[in-house]
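Thread: Newbie trying to understand structure tokens

Hi all, I'm a second-year student working on a class project, and my supervisor (Dr. K.) asked me to get a predicted structure for one chain before our next meeting. I've only ever worked with sequences, so writing a 3D structure as a token string is new to me. If someone could post the tokens and maybe explain what I'm looking at, I'd be very grateful. Here's the chain:
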Amino acid sequence: MNQDQLSIAVVSGDFDKILAAMVISLGAAAMDTEVKLFFSFWALAALRDPKKTVSGKNFISKMFGVMLPKGKEKLKLSNMNMCGMGPRMIKSIMKKHGVLSLEEMFKQAGDFGIEITICEMSMDLMGIKKEELIDYPNMRFAGAVTFAGDMGESTSQLFI
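---
Reply by user tm_fold:
Sure, no problem. This is what the structure looks like when written as tokens:
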């Protein structure tokens, strides 16, 4: 077991929950804790690059592509979304208080060496291809067994 390792399973695709995962991750990394994130199911929407398009998808995969938010800027709040006004208000308040944007948090996470594992099964089920994901320096593709191994080496595990 690694004395200073945190593993977080990020399953929700809600802005506030992705934000919580990133704030906790960056705080832990700033304290020299190794951090491993496992993005699965709806959380994968945050990792979709809005500038990238992929061809060759079947009908169901195309439908998921249309229905899922594409990128961090399109994520909804888990509560008080208010037709998109909620996320805009939170982002405005964050900026006013000098809190990094989600985009900036992901960049800093990469600089800190925080590892993101993408659930391959979720990608397959939701029709998401590697080519449509963001560029991130410490990204790997694996399954739940790999993340279970990461959790076994961690002193702390979270599910968001």
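A couple of things are worth pointing out once you decode it. Residues 15-30 form the longest helix (16 residues). The chain is about 40% helix and 15% strand. Feel free to ask follow-ups in this thread.
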